[in-house]
Design brief:
Layout (H helix, E strand, L loop, with lengths): L5 E8 L5 H11 L17 H6 L6 E8 L5 E8 L7 H8 L4 E7 L6 H12 L3 E7 L8 H12 L7 E2 L8 H11 L12 E10 L3 E10 L1 E2 L4 E4 L5 E3 L2 E5 L3 E4 L2 E2 L3 E5 L13 E4 L18 E7 L5 H13 L5 E7 L3 E8 L2 H14 L4 E3 L6 E5 L4 E4 L11 E16 L3 H10 L3 E7 L4 E9 H5 L2 H8 L5 E11 L2 E8 L2 E2 L5 E4 H18 L7 E7 L2 E8 L15 H13 L4 E4 L2 E4 H6 L5
Parallel strand pairs: 1-3, 1-4, 4-5, 5-6
Antiparallel strand pairs: 2-3, 7-8, 7-16, 8-15, 9-14, 10-11, 10-16, 12-13, 12-15, 17-19, 17-20, 18-19, 21-22, 21-23, 23-25, 23-26, 24-25, 27-28, 27-29, 27-30, 30-31, 32-33
Helix pairs in contact: 3-4
Bound molecules: guanosine-5'-triphosphate.
The site of guanosine-5'-triphosphate has 20 residues, from helix 1.
Amino acid sequence: QHQKYIRNFSIVAHIDHGKSTIADRILELTDTVSKRDMQDQVLDDMDLERERGITIKLNAVELKYHAKDGETYEFHLIDTPGHVDFSYEVSRSLAACEGAVLVVDAAQGVQAQTLANVYLAIDDDLAIIPDINKVDLPSAEPEKVQEEIEEVIGLDASNAIMTSAKTGLGIEDLLEAIVNEIPAPQGDLTAPLRALIFDSVYDDYRGVVLSVRVFEGTVKPGDKIRLMNSGTEYEVNEVGVNSPKPIKRDYLMAGEVGYITASIKDITETRVGDTVTNAAAPAEEPLPGYREMNPMVYAGLYPTDNAKYVDLREALEKLKLNDASLEFEPETSQALGHGFRVGFLGMLHMDVIQERLEREFNLDLITTAPSVTYHAELTDGSEKDVDNPAEMPDSSELSKIEEPYVKATIMVPNDYVGAVMELCQSRRGEFLTMDYLDKYRVNILYNMPLSEIIFDFFDKLKSSTRGFGSLDYDVSGYQTSDLVKIDILLNGEKVDALSFIAHRTFAERRGREIATRLKNIIPRQNFEIAIQAAIGGKIIARTTVKPYRKDVTAKLYGGDRTRRMKLLEKQKAGKKRMKAVGKVDIPQEAFMAVLKTD
Ligand code: GTP
């Protein structure tokens, strides 16, 4: 029976430990992709993923493996991202699998995201195959890493596979282990259809393409399907698998991973985590869905050209389709006009969304400084959630502000404990505990305000631990804090989009720092620009941007009008990510400047 020969698995790892490269080698070894078509990280098909060398979106691919037992197996490999911002993508792919390959870098050992990801797999009761990768590196210490996997994670690593995704060593052993150690899927082929949607994308020709894992029953073209949570019904046009190009199939059955298209045009009705069933013979209960992901930070997103507001809304709706964690609602800023308040899982997520919107939808955008959600209690007894600093009530109206705290887990070699503590302390961290993982490595726990770690904490951690520190965090709850709002004024006008919130003890210093920083960022114009920082109406800092003395075009010999126009045109085209606020042009960096720390 066919199911016996199916293996559904994911690869999980800390970032850069080699997941995508292992996936490449697997595709090559199984002739899924010919050597000629092979380019690095085939599954990272977004340009952005290639350029940054990271996996952002999960990808599913089917491949055929001729095993040593003489049988041919159908593998469904689901690649997952490793960065902390994208861990929700990991749990989504795991829900579609029976097993996971846990990749650990032979030189770096177990890191914070190794732990976070493997625990997700353990929670889902998946079979786990430890794979120690990069054994070709001179600094590789595979035996030490093997011990670490046993001690730190508590997994038996005596049969760990040793691989080098670079040279191809051990990849075949890994494929054999997948056949032998990961169970075949089970699921009644004759039961009513139940398929989990774990991803979806919008295609201009085919409509919404659903990526599904079929748990029970079968689905084929012509079937009437129903999405159980949204209640909508469609007729299936096509089913198939990605290998990695789409290949049509006559049907998909219990145990398989593939895609369904059904001329679904309304992108708002397909939700990742929903269950597809057959409308004529529906299942009684949907499959358990996904944990809802709550955004950690919110930022304003505005088109630099106000006329592009509707385009931005459409683009956000399309992106939300394959990024369920994206949340947005319209907002209006006095300074920036109409835009959206958008929720993100972290700064990398925010960067990625901004870049995808700009590239895939040809928009030019400004994002304001990200903010966490504060709970404010007002003197009149009412309460308010504030995710936009500009909307924080004046301190005279406030009785209490609470901010979100996280439990941060930091793993470092013991030489860096001092540096990490210093960094955490400077970010208002409260020390919780410290444990030795083995002779060399420590796990440090801090209770910290989320606002102190979202922006550049991870970069600072990396630089103060020479790249060895790794971080994971979970929201632990809200705590009362003594916070104040700082406003920025340009030529006496408050710019709402530049307001920010800081702890009272740092507020004045931050106000001064930011006024100075803005002075260096805001380009000179032909008039003077006064920059002021204020707390509740009291000015705490002032700087000025001097006007430029000469006309830019003056250096052109002669007053040739067309050349002059050309130069002005050129300047205009180069004016990316710049927004005119009143008469002042403010570049993107200015909005982020309020969060920078040195
Ligand atoms: P994300 O997709 O961002 O989560 O990272 P990843 O875990 O997929 O890592 P990726 O495959 O992108 O590899 C990271 C880096 O390590 C790349 O520069 C690879 O070329 C390199 N690398 C991967 N495997 C090996 C290996 O076995 N040996 C050596 N020397 N380098 C490797």
